[in-house]
Design a protein that fits this description.
Chain A is an all-alpha fold and 298 residues long. Chain A is built from twelve helices and no strands. In chain A, helix 3 runs parallel beside helix 7 and helix 4 crosses helix 7. The longest helix of chain A is centred in the first third of the chain and has 41 residues. Chain A is flat, with a radius of gyration of 25 Å. Chain B folds into two domains: 222 residues, 3-Layer(aba) Sandwich (Rossmann fold); 90 residues, Nucleic acid-binding proteins (OB fold (Dihydrolipoamide Acetyltransferase, E2P), Beta Barrel), CATH 2.40.50.140. By secondary structure, chain B is α+β, with helices and mostly antiparallel strands. In chain B, 39% of the residues are buried. The chains are: A mainly alpha (298), B alpha+beta (345). Chains A and B meet through helix 8 and helix 9 of A and strand 6 and helix 2 of B.
Chain lengths: 298, 345
């Protein structure tokens, strides 16, 4: 009798737990998990045409992808984009947070100013920067001409276009990350600073030994978000360069969009998508494994 | 060991003086308690000495060295904060030697000092834990150890025991006092708890509204309070104040609870009614209310009181135990009692 009860109880609670989880499981499965699995399956099939339905091609899509120089160009561009924008955005965010966390007049105004780019839609941001970059009468050139410089086609040159769109991403993201750093800084009790000052720690030592370690959970969070954004945000590339000139600003997601929705090559696009997903998954995993161990959670 | 002199210290916060012309000195190796209610300026005074606030006026001298405008780290002080201010991501050991590391003390010496101090405060088994894994009392010990290990001649303490429970607080009072005497530290200790002041201090500085109300030994403060405020603040229960009886309406008379006796009712207007009985074990605090005024009078009766609530009794005391204060100024009128022992142990 009691044996039967023991066996019954855990099963009932398990069922209840699954029932409670059901709504979110259904939503996640419908809009995330099932599409991922479907994409994975599609990536092993050819692109369906009007008179030729999709058929199994094995790794052909992946072979074609590896043989495509534009894929490699987009991948390398994307890695440069990530390696350039992430540290810059995080460093600027931290610097701005430290600055507006200190006692200074008009700091709430400054905080708002730093945060403004975050609330603007990326499309609007791209338009603002289009104006900055416009050769001849854009803001940058007007300043350059004022000081006797010459006009530069920032977005039209293969050498500067990628850097130009990276600057826009940093400008847009730094304010967002600053908010997280600022919130975390305000969580640090002021008497830690005082105790450290009495112990003889300089401002820099205090930052290195206390503030920075205490900010690690936020840094990890910000990094994960920054990595995802570096591979996900392409709105400004649509607006500003369309991936050009000559694929100089082509990145993975933009490439996927072009293959999938301009050239309607489903097979190639699904294979690319799987590569992007795997890349993001690996990066997130690496971050948690590498940084997670060092992070002190309060 | 150091002598601390505070001269005419003033700290204004936006036009309001939190500390207003405070002067006192602390002898080498003495424990000085800054006592007072919240907002009296005692913590601000401590923070001025620590260099965490910049004084508006005045001077702070330690061992003949004017430190008024020196940064905290050059004042040769250690400090224990009310919140302990431990670094949450560092282990107990790292917390304790933080200052030594920052000041570039060699590893071998650091380890030796850490071992000694950890044993002294009973933390040897917890050195690898983080503050989050410690009880309140243990965290307090870490803060104490961090202050001791620096071997600075002056130790400042800002309400170090206020986050502990009553039993632990009593243990730590004894322990801190013993450590202070053993290590010969000059200590300034801020508290609002008059029991801590009475039990630990060589010298008590009672503050009110940013100014010193009375400075002296615990015995001075208890036996000869300089003002009505001091009389009420020091001692539990607070001193009874009896409204002017008879010829001198400008005088307030104070009598301590233990100096009062209950006598059989006389039947005249001076009798009082028992309104509360608080049994403490060794003695009982009987509260009475006189019919002619509203102030409760507390009488300490040895053992269990035979009185019952609602009974009437007369109040009696030896006139030698009266403390007389001027009603208008609140200042003491009568001379200090002759039996005061003012030499600290």
């Amino acid at each position: 009798m009691s044996f039967g009860l023991h066996r019954l109880m855990p099963r009932r609670t398990t069922v209840e737990a699954w029932l409670l989880l059901l709504p979110s499981v259904v939503l996640l499965a419908t809009f995330a998990h099932i599409p991922i699995v479907a994409t994975l399956i599609d990536s092993f099939y050819s692109t369906p045409r009007r008179n030729r339905p999709a058929h199994f091609v094995g790794l052909d899509n992946y072979r074609d992808m590896v043989a495509d120089p534009i894929f490699w160009k987009a991948l390398i561009n994307n890695l440069i984009y990530a390696a350039g924008t992430i540290p810059a955005a995080v460093a600027i965010a931290l610097a701005m947070a430290l600055f507006v966390d200190s006692r200074l007049p008009g700091r709430s105004l400054l905080r708002m100013a730093y945060f403004t780019p975050t609330v603007l839609p990326m499309i609007a941001v791209a338009n603002i920067w289009l104006f900055f970059y416009t050769p001849g009468y854009g803001l940058l050139d007007q300043i350059a001409i004022l000081f006797g410089g010459h006009t530069t086609n920032w977005l039209g040159s293969q050498h500067t276009a990628l850097a130009a769109v990276m600057v826009v991403a940093v400008w847009k993201e730094a304010g967002f990350f600053m908010i997280f750093y600022l919130a975390a800084l305000q969580q640090i009790p002021p008497d830690l600073r005082e105790a450290a000052a009495i112990e003889g720690a300089s401002r820099f030592t205090f930052f290195r030994r206390v503030t920075w370690p205490l900010l690690m959970p936020v840094t990890l969070f910000v990094l994960v978000n920054a990595v995802i954004n570096a591979f996900r945000t392409v709105d400004h590339i649509f607006m500003m360069t369309g991936g050009g000139p000559d694929n100089a600003t082509n990145v993975l997601l933009f490439h996927i969009y072009e293959i999938g929705f301009k050239f309607w090559d489903q097979g190639a696009a699904t294979a690319l998508t799987m590569v992007l997903l795997a890349l993001l998954g690996l990066l997130a995993l690496a971050q948690f494994l590498f940084a997670g161990r060092k992070v002190h959670y309060q | 060991m150091s002598r601390i002199e505070v001269e005419h210290l003033v700290k204004d916060f936006g036009g309001r003086a939190a500390v207003n012309d405070v002067s006192f000195s602390v002898e080498r190796g003495a424990l000085c308690v800054l006592l007072g209610p919240s907002g009296c300026g005692k913590s601000t005074t401590l923070r001025l000495i620590a260099g965490l606030e910049e004084p508006t006026a005045g001077r702070i001298v330690i061992d003949g060295r004017d430190i008024t405008h020196l940064p905290s780290k050059d004042r040769r002080i250690a400090m224990v904060f009310q919140s302990y201010a431990l670094f949450p991501h560092l282990t107990v050991a790292q917390n304790i030697v933080f200052g030594l590391e920052v000041r570039g003390v060699a590893r071998a010496e650091r380890d030796a000092r850490l071992g000694k101090v950890a044993a002294l405060v009973g933390l040897s088994e917890y050195l690898t834990r983080k503050p989050g894994q410690l009880s309140g009392g243990q965290r307090q010990r870490v803060a104490l150890a961090r202050a001791i290990v620096s071997e600075q001649p002056v130790c400042l303490m800002d309400e170090p025991l206020s986050n502990l429970d009553a039993k632990l607080r009593q243990e730590m009072r004894v322990e801190i006092r013993a450590l202070q005497q053993r290590l010969g530290m000059t200590m300034i200790y801020v508290t609002h708890d008059q029991v801590e002041a009475m039990t630990m201090a060589d010298q008590v500085i009672l503050m009110k509204d940013g100014a010193i109300e009375q400075a002296g030994s615990p015995v001075d403060l208890y036996q000869a309070p300089a003002t009505v405020f001091a009389a009420r603040f020091v001692g539990a229960p607070p001193m009874n104040l009896i409204a002017a009886a008879g010829p001198e309406p400008s005088v307030v008379t104070g009598v301590r609870a233990e100096d009062m006796r209950l006598a059989p009712p006389t039947g005249n207007g001076a009798d009082a009614e028992v309104t509360s009985i608080e049994y403490l074990g060794a003695d009982t605090i009987v509260g009475l209310r006189r019919s002619d005024d509203g102030d409760a009078i507390l009488v300490r009766v040895p053992g269990r009181a035979s009185a019952r609530i609602g009974e009437r009794a007369a109040l009696a005391w030896d006139p030698a135990h009266e403390h007389r204060f001027d009603r208008a100024s609140g200042r003491r009128l009568s001379a200090f009692p002759p039996s005061t022992d003012r030499s600290p142990a």
